[in-house]
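Morning, I've got a small favour to ask if you have a moment. The fold is given in discrete form, as structure tokens running alongside the sequence. I'd be grateful if you could look everything over and explain what you see. No rush at all, and the record is pasted right below.
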Amino acid sequence: MGACEVTGRSTKEWVSSHPDQRIPPRVRLRVFERFGGICQISKRRIGPADKWDCDHITALCNGGEHREGNLQPALREEHKSKTAEDVAQKSADARKRSKHLGLHKSRNPLPGGRGGPLKKKIGGGVVPR
């Protein structure tokens, strides 16, 4: 098999057909070898008895792709904590985006503010919205 013209690799990069596709063992091995068997989160060497996962560098929920170039080896416990951080980041981004677009309604609107039940007229009178 000749070198891939785009990347110069001898094998084509694995790209999943859908986000739930299992990562093949051959791809896990290539990811492990590419990073020299080092957990990319804790920077610790992964031993034979250690459980490890292929972690997405840019999480799928944050717009990353399910492909070999977006994978790195990570010890299982470190991977769980990074996944929790990724989900928290996605939630924060979604909250900011919805607030920016005016989709988020405050639970405790300020009195006299736009979200409150009363409206103040120019003449000084107060009327319901």
